[in-house]
User: Fold TetR/AcrR family transcriptional regulator from Skermania pinensis.
Amino acid sequence: MSPASSQQSDTAHQTDQDNPTATRPLRADAARNQQRVLDAARELFARRGMDITLDQVAEQAGVGVGTVYRRFGDKLTLLQGVLYQNLDLLSEQAEAAAEHPDPWQGLVEFCEYACANLAENRALGHVLLSLDADSGDRFGAVRERVQPAVNRAVERAKAAGELRPDAEVGDFFALLHMISGLAEFARPVNPEVWRRYLTLVLDGLRADGAPRDPLPIRGLTDGEIEHAKSHYHKRRR
Assistant:
C-alpha cells in the first residue's frame, strides 16, 4: 500500500490541524506506536534538522511506514507533534520556575532546560524561537503560559534580591536566542560548551554580580573556533 492510499484509507484517524497528537483516544498499542514515532522523530530532528524523511522515522521507530503516514501525513505535521510535546514541557518548566522555593534557582533551572532543548534540537530550536502571538491557537496558548510564568519568576528573583533590579523578562528571551546561536555554532566541536556561556551570562544578571559556581566546562580552543567557523560557513553556502 502506498503512503497516499494508506493515508486515505484511515481518515477516521486524521490529526487535528491545531494539534497533530490530539485525536480521539487511541488503543494502548496505537498510543505506544505513536510515542515511538515521536521519540524517533525527536532524535532524528535533533541530529539532522529538517533533512529527514518519514521512511527514516519509521525505520528508527521500528514501525511500518504506513503507521507514520496515517498518523502524521507529512514531515511538517510530525515536526508539529514533536514540537507540541516540547512546548508543553517548556510550559511546565516555566511554571515550576515561578513556584520554586529558591527564586534564583528556579530561574536558572528554567534557562538551563530551555537552552538544553534548543541546543539539542536543531529543527525545534528554529521553530521555538519563531513562536509569537500569531502562531496559531495551540502555540498562542503555550506562549500565554510561558511568558507570564517567566515574568513571575523574574519578579520573584528581583524581590529576593538575587536578580539585578534593572533586569527585564525580555533579557531572558534574548539570552535564549544568544545561547541557541552559540550552541549551533559550536555543535561540531563542543556540543556542551553553551553551558559555560549560559553560566557567564547568568552571573552577569545576579544582583551582586558574584559567581555562585565555577564555570562548568572549558572554553573553546583556537583550533575548535576555526573548525566551527569552517563548518558554519559550509552550512550557509
